[in-house]
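Check this:
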Amino acid sequence: MCQLLGMNCNVPTDICFSFAGFRARGGLTDHHRDGWGIAFFEGRGVRVFLDPAPSAHSPVAELVNRYPIRSLNVIAHIRKATQGEIRLENTHPFQRELWGRYWIFAHNGNLKDFAPPLSGRFLPVGSTDSELAFCHILDTLAARFPAGKPAPAELHAALRELAREIGSRGEFNFLLSDGDWLFAHCSSRLCYIVRRAPFAEAHLADEDLTVDFRRLTGPQDRVAVIATTPLTDNEHWTQIAPGNLVAFRDGDTIALGETATVAQDYPRRGIDKAPSA
């Protein structure tokens, strides 16, 4: 399956530590070699880097790894192609505008016989089931809330309904953000960690790299990192229960509507955080 990575925090934070381990899964510590991408929100703008080459060997990934872009919301993806050729237009994350905001989306899974009708406002450029699902989500939201972005609880309920509908066609793990909120839906496998004081050291599972967050953070800093599987091997990650849509804001989970319960904690295997996460 593809690999997802998200970060949501209450102060602008770079994702260099997490990304160092994450990019290794694209052809070095795992077999996901069909492209990668990452998007950083900066105010109302978004920086998006995409490359159809394996992330472990990508010069663009090396640039991102050495470029400490600080953001409140980040979404990254490493692709293992199931639908659509290995091309730039099929590389996640995908970007569209709705209600005067950019939306970023990345998907992990395989949707079978998925062919929803689209109004024409949002159309896929590539040939992936993922981009088609993203267009369907935005198409539905635009039609349901024509006056503009709804209240967070209404938005969460609509997204949860769409996630269940689309998820009936196959695995539908995804990350979605408009720069204010980051939504994480688990169909089969997705976990997260929230780093807050008191901070500690973290060691990557895919690279021999350790960071002491006590030296990099302030007492009020808070960062949530979401990943397909834990990125570190010395921290407790929490697995999201399949079927749940978890909302993140200001570096923590926020209960909206139906309680976003979670399953058991992972044993000590993975973490990620800080003004250098």
